[in-house]
Amino acid sequence: MSGICNFIQNTKYFKKSFKNYLRINISLYKYFFIDNPEIIKKKIKSLCNKLNIFGRIYISYEGINIQANILKKYLKIFKKKISNIHKDLKNIYINIGIDNSKISFNTLSVKIKKNIIFDGLQSFKLNINLNNKYLNSKKVNNLLYNKEAVFVDIRNNYEHKIGHFKNAILMNTSIFREQLQKIFQYIHKYKTKKIVLYCTGGIRCEKTSLWIKSNGYKNVYQIRGGIIGYINDCIKNNNSIEFLGKIFVFDLRLYETVTKDILSYCDQCNRKSDYYVNCINNKCNLLFIQCLLCSKRYQSFCSKKCYIEFHRK
Predict the structure, then answer these.
(1) Cβ distance 89 to 30 under 8 Å?
(2) Sequence-separated (6 or more) residues with CB below 8 Å from residue 300
């Protein structure tokens, strides 16, 4: 009996210990005017160091953008402390990652930038007083199959490849600033309809919404919390998840799985695959989709040329 008791006690201790070290992936942003970004940088960096937070944080005169992971037990403390850093950060919306089985970051980087996400809009002054219209998951699902609504993917083409809402408009671009330049080519004929913007966590839609509304568009909506917020809200309220495939993320994980649908193809053999990898040749480092068979065949290189170049060293 003593052996069984010890096993039970050890198991309980292990579970408790595991919970104490469980890390979750979080993302948050806020557009607001910052007088002195350097002061905010020092405060946020100090907070992250105290709470053992890893991630990539951008601060500018227009706001903050945080992608990070944190010990789950510290999340409530973080919410409270971040609210005390600036009055405009009170009750800030925090997205929790869909997949927390993998770590997104293993270092901390806090930088001051011109923009919290680069837009290339030299003459556009961000007007945060233009209130954006947010949709929860129920309203999103209602609009998905409404002929009076159109969904626009505010992400890069390689993000859209592995996961998206069905029939969403894709702008064939690889950088955000190019999307903002070209977006009116894609949406001008839908000006009288409801235009629903979506991206990973909401930050790109926030600026895009303000940009197109400043150009005369009125019926512009965005998903609260982006795709991640939508999925979490679907789970919370038992709504059907209409997003298909994987979400591309800009960290060590590269993606979060939402459904088992495979929407893309291997760049080397054209078999169905949705696994993004970086070419193992550091001089190349190309981001591309590679199936498991090609991964073995090409040993994680994007081409024979890269394989030969790498082994010449």
Answers:
(1) yes
(2) 277, 279, 280, 290
Tell me: the pLDDT tens digits for 227-250? Answer: 999 999 999 999 999 999 999 999
Nearest to 227, CA basis, from 193, 209, 263, 203? 203
Report how far residue 82's alpha carbon sits from residue 92's, in angstroms, rounded to the nearest whole number.
8
CB atoms closer than 10 angstroms to residue 183: 22
List 186's β-bridge partners, or say none. none
How far is it, in rounded angstroms, from Cα 91 to Cα 76?
12
CA angle 306, 312, 313 (to 5 degrees): 110
Beta strands in the chain (DSSP E): 23-31, 54-60, 63-71, 95-96, 108-112, 133-135, 149-153, 163-165, 169-170, 194-198, 220-223, 243-248, 255-257, 276-278, 287-289
Q: Give CA–CA dist 83/90, Å, rounded.
A: 4
Asked if residue 309 lies in contact with residue 285, where contact means CB atoms within 8 angstroms, the answer is: no
Which residues does the annotation mark as catalytic?
A: 199
How many Å separate Cα 245 from the centre of its chain?
14
Instruction: Map out the domains of the chain with their CATH numbers.
Output: 21-112 (3.30.70.100), 133-237 (3.40.250.10), 265-310 (no CATH)
* 8 Å CB contact between 112 and 41: yes
**What digits encode the pLDDT tens for the residues 186-224?**
999 999 999 999 999 999 999 999 999 988 999 999 999
In sequence order, which ranges of 33-107 are alpha helices (DSSP H)?
37-50, 75-85
- N-terminal to C-terminal alpha carbon distance within the chain: 62
- Cα distances (Å, whole numbers) of residue 143 to 132, 135, 150, 221: 17, 10, 8, 11
Spatial CA neighbour of 210 closest among 301, 131, 313, 115: 131
Query: For residue 80, what are the contacts with CB-CB under 8 A and spacing of at least 6?
Result: none
Angstrom distance (rounded) from CA 9 to CA 4: 9
Token digits for 99?
Answer: 């997949």
Give the tokens for residue 48: 């992250």
